[in-house]
Amino acid sequence: MSDDLTIRPACPNDAAQIAAIYAHYVKHGTASFDTEPRSVEATSAKIAECATRGWPFLVCADGGELLGYAYATQFRDRPAYGLACEDSIYVHPDHVGKGVGKQLLGALIDAAQTAGFRQMLAVIGGGEPASIALHASLGFEHVGRMRSVGRKFGRWLDSVYMQRALGTGDSQPPAREPR
Q: Taken in order 2, 88, 178, 10, is the CA torsion positive or negative?
């Protein structure tokens, strides 16, 4: 990993590398409750959906190699959730523990705020300690745990919920109402 890292919006050409990073976590980890990796086409569609809706989808690149990605989508699809987003962040397994995740999540927080979100939630599959520590380091607070809501690799998995305000959070009305 060089000192020349770039965090930028994802583009369609990134879909194959993003899909490969995600596939690793689907096949070998509990951070995702998916049991089948997402196709390159589905990944490309997710990038396009985020772009169309004005939601941030970022990648961390070292030259042409993607070291990780992060995106924020509306927390749930009902209109009143329109100012709350959920983050998703995955770092290439060869680059875990090198600060990529912290840089990506920091940039995603800023981009989500710029997109108009006021709250960010992390739904941490499997209660992954590294993900909990990463989110806590950037101001997320523990707000709940759902016990044994997933099952993967022959074991029950919890989901940990963490949350942080973006911008003024709920201290004043938003510039726009959810729609």
A: positive
Distance of CA 29 to the CA centre of its chain: 16
Residue in 129, 128, 118 with CA at minimum distance from that of residue 72? 118
What CATH number does residue 128 fall under? 3.40.630.30
The residue segments making up the domain with residue 149 are 5-165
Which ranges in the chain belong to alpha helices (H)? 15-28, 40-53, 100-114, 129-137
157: phi > 0 → left, psi -120 to 50 → alpha, else beta; which? Answer: beta
In a domain, 56, yes or no: yes
Determine contact, residues 124/159, Cβ cutoff 8 Å: yes
Q: Label the pairing between strands 155-165 and 141-152.
A: antiparallel
Let me know if residue 155 belongs to a domain: yes
- 57 assigned to some structural domain: yes
Consecutive 10-residue averages of pLDDT for the chain (179 residues) = 83 97 97 96 98 97 95 95 97 95 97 96 94 97 97 96 96 81
Any domain includes 171: no
Domain count, the chain: 1
